[in-house]
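In the current project phase, the collection of sequences with tokenised folds has grown. A sample record is quoted in full directly below:
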Amino acid sequence: MVFFVFIVATALSRSSQMTNKQSIINNLSPSGAPSHTTVESPVFIFGCPRSGTSLLSRLIGSHPRIAIPFESHLYNTFYPWLKYYGDLGQLKNRERLVDDILATEVMRDWSPRLSRQEVLATISQYNFHGIVDGILRTWTQAQGKQRWGEKTPAHLFYWREILSAFPKMQVLHIVRDGRDVALSWEKARFGPKHMYPLAQKWKQHLEVASVLKTELDNGSFLDVKYEELLQKPESVVRRICTFLNEEFSPEMLSFYKTETAYPTDRNNQKNLSKPPLVSNIGKWRLEMTARQLHIFEAVAGTTLEQYGYTPQLSQPRVSALEAMRFRFLEHPPRKILAMLKNKKGHIDGLRRLQIYCRLRLGL
């Protein structure tokens, strides 16, 4: 089983690095330039995993005009594989890509499930971004709404591709104290399982988001503090609605009463079934060990300060030898054990591996 999980992870990791630039350009549009395909500005929610992206998507998705489905993983899964699909101007190639997208485990979790024919009929631009838009518009229309949003944390690393296709996009970037993020992420069924890579990943997400922020004007990018959202939900949600040029709706604050399925992990589901929990603020003060705190602040203490969080330690350090021990000795067994327990991840990895192998073999 360990070997199988390693093979799946390795194959998918390598595939994500394979980018045939000319093939991708050919898939953007007949002229080689991506086209914006929606009338209304799409809403993208970015943030490090366990920063409150699910909470924010549920709040915004409860607006009577905005629909935000469960994570899609469209860009981080399929964008690196575009060269295998050929010219998306041809119907058979679009059908193949749509079929593969709808076959992934995350898309099977969407409720209601998408109809292949409805998606194909909704696509108005014959390129990858047009297919993304077609999928999200199909789901949005099924909700009886007019404007779509998307929440997949990994899509932050594809912001350039997304922005080129959707130049009118509006970004909601949620930020949470990295120490709380690390503790929550460590317990999740996915992601790093040691404080050293957890701190690195949190820092990396914020660094990439800061670059994106410089590319957008104030009307297109809004930072949302997770702690403020929990403490003053109505005030923050009203500010978000003003940013999105939408009327505030009290329904948004009742997101936890909705019966719409949201197939996240058990702990996240439990939290999302309640009003915003102020008790989720500063949990690291009680739960983080002295060693974990030292490691996190040594890696990301400066970033904590940049976002208004106060480090507890004065100039903590991690030596190169310690870093190697964390990366190569302490983290791998914890990660492997977590992967073995992640049954849903096995299913998702197997489905994606099947798609990838079929593409590579030209079947």
In short: Residues 40-361 form a domain with the Rossmann fold fold (CATH 3.40.50.300).
